[in-house]
Amino acid sequence: MSSSILDIRNVTKTFGGLKAVNDVSFSVAPGEFLGIAGPNGSGKSTLFNVLTRIPFGPTSGEVHFNGQRIDRMAPHRIAGLGLTRTFQKDVEFPDLTALETVSLAARYGRGMAAEALDRAAAEQLDLVEFNPDRARLPTTELSVYERKQLMIASALIMDPAVLMLDEPASGLTRPEIAALDRLLSKINAAGVTVLLIEHVLSLLLSVSQRLIVLNQGGLLAEGDPQDVIRDPGVIEAYLGGRAA
Predict the structure, then answer these.
(1) Which of 118, 135, 159 is the last residue of a domain?
(2) Which has the closest alpha carbon to 30: 2, 9, 52?
(3) Is 7 found in the same domain as 126?
(4) Low-confidence residues of the chain, pLDDT below 50?
(5) Which end of the chain is more exposed for a tag (fewer CB within 10 A), N or C?
């Protein structure tokens, strides 16, 4: 494996006496698709918060991106370097169309000239296979899957080297999950490193080259996805059963 694009070193995040992330360390290679699993409350989203400093950084530990330490940087600087994320809550600005929503992300992330915004937004919507006939509809009129596409396009327009996705399959039907699977694989094949938090295990196993599992804030298991899901500790903590 080549040198890492993202290094997480002994990262901890505490809230009073609670360690939401507890001494977590791992590295991500350029172009890798890394899956992140774990039960509710295991620290997955908090880890994403810490890595991007949205809305807070780590209590201790270090985060390095492309060899540069970023855990003390402002969030907009981290995004500008090429580390972007989505959130569990879908992007929705009721007064904006889908095209305007993605354009807004471009204005924030890349400082593009006004005349280039719509063109760049349309290109990203096309990349995520968004129906162009619906691009000028208000976001409130979009389907759940369309809002997922919009959210991903809004992150991609910032030209990330690493894209971090937080439960994008939530609320989707099986056909929509299959479409998301193809979309995420296409994004990764285009050279974008992807970190995916997901509870839909079939999707996680389909797209991930490597899987890590968090439990109670700590790193429980790491490795080949098929091996990890057979780990007795993972079966007990994440899948909710006990190993035989």
Answers:
(1) 159
(2) 2
(3) no
(4) 1-2, 241-244
(5) C
- Whether this prediction's pTM lies above 0.85 is answered by yes
Residue 112, judged by CB atoms within 10 A of its CB (0-12, 13-18, 19+), counts as: middle
- For residue 220, give the CATH number of its domain: 3.40.50.300
Tell me the two tokens of residue 206.
């389909």
Q: Counting beta carbons within 10 angstroms of the beta carbon of residue 136, is it exposed (0 to 12), middle (13 to 18) or buried (19 or more)?
A: exposed
What is the span of the domain harbouring residue 55?
1-82+160-244
**Shared-domain flag, residues 129 and 236:** no
Asked if residue 48 lies in contact with residue 85, where contact means CB atoms within 8 angstroms, the answer is yes
pLDDT at 94: 80
pLDDT at 202: 95
End-to-end CA distance of the chain: 34
Q: How do residues 31-47 score in pLDDT, each as one tens digit?
A: 999 999 999 999 999 99
Phi then psi dihedrals of residue 110, to 5 deg? -125, -5
The domain boundary, picked from 159, 185, 208, lies at 159
